[in-house]
Amino acid sequence: MVTINDVARRAGVSVSTVSYTLSGKRTISASTRARVERAIAELGYHPHAGARALASARTNIFALMAPLRPDVDVSVIMQFVTGVVTRARTADYDVLLLTQDEADGVGRVGSGSLVDALILMDVESDDPRIPQVAALRQPTILIGLPEDARGVSCVDFDFEAAARLSLRHLTALGHRNVALIGPPPAVIARHTSYADRLLRGYRAQAEHDGVGCVIEPAGTAPGEAVAALDAVLTQVPELTGLVVHNEAALPVILATLRDRGRRVPEDISVVALAPADVADAQPVPITAMDIPALNIGQVAVDMALARLRGSDTVETRLIAPTLHERSSTAPPR
């Protein structure tokens, strides 16, 4: 195994010079730095993570807290995770993925020197982790938007705007008998921030457009999706427009509409809020708004890196929705 001593001998410098080159704690001349970096590349030297942490007060590790609860769509969560991990690697950071549903996990992970920054997912509107975040020395980025985000940097998709845009698209086509099939009941019950914002936006647009506001949550199991659709059809027998934000339920809803003799878009127009790969996988080209999970994960890392580089900016970034109109929506007959 290549050691720091091997690098020093190859570069013709002292071990301390190699250490200072790696840590940046002292100024090293450009020519000396170049020799050290060349020796590192030629030998394939990789500093031990613990030694690097002692030398630089950095571990080059991010903690990503992504609770894998039974009611979450793991495939969508992993798109956010992929965005975080891939962007972190470009900055020479590794990612410690924590999937347990533990409110006190933030304090435990952040209390020592294990990680340089934390990124939190599955944020609730009144998230119990926020007070712990405020006490940490490490920067923390939320993928989500709590009701009170003061002092905390956040990034997320603008679910409120997306809900408004989806319903506005249907009503602009002339649909008056509309409904929303939304996230699982447990997600809504614990006031996950994206769900609260989605419902708020849909209700506001329904009031603005003067249409009935029918909202039905759907579980992740196929039978629960069918039950949600049946509940909507019972409440709105003349349904012609449907907004769906539930990736697991979407294919079941489309299949059930077909089985019930309801054609898309001839009888019912459908708009989906879903990652592009989910919308594209459906048998009908779906009018949809992509949830850019990969991009959001990357932005979260960029925000954490900016804080580590000395930026004091606390900001909220909401990614604006874009509607991609396809053949699943049309004016009602």
Automatic annotation (TrEMBL):
This protein's UniProt keywords: DNA-binding, Transcription, Transcription regulation
Annotated PROSITE patterns: HTH_LACI_2
InterPro entries reported for this sequence: HTH_LacI (IPR000843), LacI/GalR-like_sensor (IPR046335), Lambda_DNA-bd_dom_sf (IPR010982), Peripla_BP_I (IPR028082)
Iron as UniProt keyword: no
SUPFAM superfamilies assigned: lambda repressor-like DNA-binding domains, Periplasmic binding protein-like I
Transmembrane segments: none
Single GO MF descriptor: DNA binding
Domain HTH lacI-type span(s) in chain numbering: 2-56
Top-rank taxon: Bacteria
Alphabetized PANTHER family for the sequence: LACI-RELATED TRANSCRIPTIONAL REPRESSOR, LACTOSE OPERON REPRESSOR
Protein name according to UniProt: LacI family DNA-binding transcriptional regulator
Classification lineage: Bacteria, Bacillati, Actinomycetota, Actinomycetes, Micrococcales
